[in-house]
Design brief:
Helix content is 20%, strand content 29%. It has 353 residues and is of the alpha/beta class. It folds into two domains: 192 residues, FAD/NAD(P)-binding domain, CATH 3.50.50.60; 124 residues, 3-Layer(bba) Sandwich (FAD/NAD(P)-binding domain). The strands form nine sheets. The protein has a five-stranded parallel beta sheet with strand order 6-3-2-10-22, with helices on one face. Strands 1-9-8-7 form a four-stranded mixed beta sheet, with no helix packed on it. A four-stranded parallel beta sheet has the order 14-13-12-18, with helices on one face. β20 and β21 form a beta hairpin. It is elongated. The protein starts with a strand and ends with a strand.
Length: 353
């Protein structure tokens, strides 16, 4: 049996940052993830996708962010159970939780933090009759390596952040980028919408709205997409392409977690955001995209904030008789569990009693 202070289910950015915050409190963490490597979607789905809203980084690749987080938590020596899914949870008489994976690995901890992102997921596919025939033959639902599209003619469909961000990124990689969306309005960040419009005006992106992809054509691989403008059934555009990338988001599923007795709302776990992001079961928290509460924003930086408050609450649950004096890390740097220390620069810093 693997024993730890905080058992984190999900090794994406939020789960990894929770290790750092817990380490500052001298709490040991162990992470479970169904993927074979840490990083969640950032590693598995879009490691080369730029992220623009991480404080201190004008932009950073998703995979690079994961690398930085792994380096940041190294002094605290977290444990990992990778390639296994958290299957069942039991609460013992002493208040600790026992979590068993689908491969039978047993974990024990007084605190469980669910940081499973969107849970298990699969891409939402457009309803095109023959799309499966062109999968891996010009059609892809996830961009892992943008270099695949170097000097290619690419059509992206979608109106969210992923469609906008990848259109912006590939404008400097592909020979031709066309973005198709069924509405004139986009759901993504306003700054990204403005960048796409600027690239359109500069002739670096073809923007076709409102319109939809209605057919795919090709022999052994994709050769053309057929685009139909909204309200104009008699006017179709046949566009020669090398690659078609529909980015309509992911269809999330909580998996076994949905059967743990937690309060679920719209496929997310309800938490108390007035204090510490605890669920309806004391000792079980949910942080990051997996949770929901009034005003919830599914942003990585929000997950970092939630992880910080969760760890403070977890410390008080584990050590109810201790009074923790919180200090900024600039007071004395970061000391790892192995005694290694990253010294902080000299500074005048307040401690919060």
């Amino acid at each position: 049996m693997i024993k730890t202070d905080i058992l984190i289910i999900g090794a994406g950015p939020t789960g990894l940052f929770a290790v750092f915050e817990a380490g500052l409190l001298k709490l040991k963490c162990h992470l479970i993830d169904a993927l074979p490597q840490p990083g969640g979607q950032c590693s598995e789905i879009y490691p080369k996708k730029p992220i623009y809203d991480i404080p201190g980084f004008p932009d950073i690749l998703a995979g690079e962010l994961v690398d930085n987080l792994m380096e940041q938590i190294k002094p605290f020596q977290p444990g990992f159970t990778l390639g296994e899914r958290a299957e069942t949870i039991d609460k013992l008489e002493d208040g600790t939780f026992v979590v068993t994976t689908n491969k039978g690995t047993v974990h024990s901890a007084p605190i469980v933090a669910i940081a499973g992102g969107l849970g298990s997921f699969e891409p939402r596919k457009p309803l095109l009759e023959n799309i499966s025939e062109f999968e891996d033959k010009g059609v892809a639902y996830i961009i892992k390596d943008p270099e695949i599209y170097r000097d290619k003619k690419v059509v992206i469909a979608g109106g969210g952040d992923s469609a906008l961000d990848w259109s912006i990124f590939l404008a400097e990689v592909a020979s031709e980028v066309t973005l198709v969306h069924r509405r004139n309005e986009f759901r993504g960040a306003l700054d990204s919408v403005e960048k796409v419009q600027d690239l359109k005006n500069a002739g670096k992106i073809n923007l076709i709205t409102p319109a939809e992809i209605v057919a795919l054509k090709g022999n052994e691989r994709l050769e053309k997409v057929v685009i139909q403008r909204a309200g104009d059934n008699d006017n179709e555009i046949s566009l020669a392409v090398d690659n078609f990338i529909p980015l309509f988001g992911l269809s999330p599923k909580l998996g076994p977690i949905a059967d743990w007795g937690l309060q679920i709302e719209k496929n997310a776990i309800k938490v108390d955001n007035t204090l510490d992001y605890q669920t309806n079961i004391p000792g079980i928290y949910a942080i990051g995209d997996v949770n929901t509460y009034p005003g919830k924003l599914k942003l990585i930086l929000c997950g970092f904030h939630e992880a910080t408050l969760m760890c403070q609450s977890a410390y008080q649950r584990i050590f109810p008789d201790k009074k923790y004096v919180m200090k900024y890390t600039t007071v004395g740097g970061v000391t790892g569990f192995d005694g290694s220390k990253k010294e902080a620069p000299k500074a005048v810093v307040k401690a919060i009693e």
